[in-house]
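Training component of the fellowship. As part of building independent skills, the fellow (R.M.) carried out the full modelling exercise for a liganded target. The chosen ligand was beta-D-glucopyranose. The inputs are recorded below so that the supervisory panel can assess the work.
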Amino acid sequence: MNNTLQDPNLEAQVEALLSHMSLEQKVGQMTQPERMACTPEDVKEFHIGSVLSGGGSCPGDNHPSDWVSMNDAYWMASMEADEDHLAIPLLYGVDAIHGNGNVLGATVFPHNIGLGAARDPDLIKRIAQATAREILATGVDWTFAPTLAVARNIHWGRSYESYSEDPTLVGSYAAPFVQGMQGDLGEDSVVACVKHWVGDGGTTHGIDQGETTVSLDELQATHIAPYRPAIDAGVLTVMASFNSWNGDKCHGHHQLLTEVLKGELGFEGFVISDWDGIDYLSKSYYEAVGMSVNAGIDMFMVSVDWRQFIRHLTTHVEKGTVPMSRIDDAVRRILRVKFAFGLFDKPRPLERRWSADKSFGGAEARAVAREAVRKSLVLLKNDNAALPLKREARILVAGKSAHNRGHQCGGFTIAWQGVEDNDSIQGGCSIWEGVQDFAPRATLSVDPLAADADPAKHDIALVVIGERPYAEGMGDVRPGDNVIVEAGSQIRGEMKVLEPYGRTLEHAVAHPEDLAILASIAAKGIPVVAVLISGRPLPVGPELAAADAFVAAWLPGSEGQGVSDVLFGDYDFQGCLSFAWPGDASSIKDPATMAFPYGFGLRMNGNP
Ligand code: BGC
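Fellow's submitted model of the complex:
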């Protein structure tokens, strides 16, 4: 039940506007091109309802003011009224999935997997509020977040977007996020979008955009369950998923989109397709357009080929293969969200309360992000009281991710696949920079093997290791291409296959440089504290053995001091695993080979 969207006054406004709209205007409202492929003039000419930025797609110099100018131009075009054009405000969408991380100088929060370890719904609400403020600073109204995926196989490159493998934990974060983001639908609010509907985290072998083979009961219990509290909290939009369910693609799935989501769950907002997601329904694009509209998609993320989409949809309606009632339902839902959100009453982006506000990337949001980092760290091992670190100690800080804000932030930061340097992430600090604030005698080794480690000069080493940034299918770990062939044979429709991150989860094989540096320092008799930066739990037997203490830091984001807050003992560890931690890559689901069970996490004193 979605009370926000069940207001008779709202419906009257929607119907009044709808009754004046031509087919051309209705189809335009249903179309969402990418900014690079659509000018403000196009927005007016084609009555475009929404524009998006794909990952890393940024205007000008990527400062909030550049975004406000861009949005202002789109908005003004959408609001021009004349005999051919109705003033219907444009809704602009971005992937602010861990802060408004595409934008230079934004506060970058930990990715969801770390937030799952924090077990703190109130923190999720505050993160969503702070993120909303930094979205509004760019003149944007809509984020494609939160991801409610329940990742069941850590080979999946999007595991870090999942709060947990446990649907109850994911579900407990859904409403706080939606409430924090959408608030009272006033000037501090941003439209949220739960994604990806549905079963994205359940694919066989963890293949991104792959096939989820489960019964309806299991789909309900595991993957649909977290959506219920989000819908009850009034989430305004839902994104369809690339994956298929028992062979049929979600983008063309009438049962899932219309019967379950809109019928059984009572969702009254609108469903957006994922990035060109309808393309994979059929070899014929024309057919794909018809299938997806009739299945229940309301707005179409059609990046570049949007003119073709508009032509095809118009033809379908003219020929009667898509009924006008379906078009009206889709547009009604889009207008309902725009009215409910107060979009028609907002001033142009240049004149909004938070546009280019000085608070962007400011101390208040960064304090919330730093708290989130502290709470997300999971201590896996602490032998010989290696932790807490002592402020007066001569600490050697080493490892490829010790001074690399890009690595810390992971994918969906500045670029779709993330970045690998410090300068692209403005504000915040690397883990090394955070340590410097605490321990004036600490030094940084930039040698790949820390050849400068010396027991006469260093009391202890802090070694930051892990995965490099990745996003979506490019983060998949696939033992061989046979798994793709297998998935392809199970899916009715096409598959998009991206080059995977690697062939094995076994960290010593995927990243031998990490074990090498740990072993090289440990061989000199210097105690080692290892911090792992990763988007998923990884089999790290040899690395664990080489370290006295071992901390899973996930993808902590821009606030590196949050790591020091805990390593130096100002705060105790409180994180608990939101995914079971495998000991062995070959049997990631076998309880007998788990290194640490779901929920594991030590306190500083070594007790769970
Ligand atoms: C992803 C979505 C994202 C969209 C827009 C897609 O590739 O699957 O999660 O919201 O791109 O950037």
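The panel noted the following from the submitted structure. The chain has two domains: 4-351, 377-596. The longest strand covers residues 460-466.
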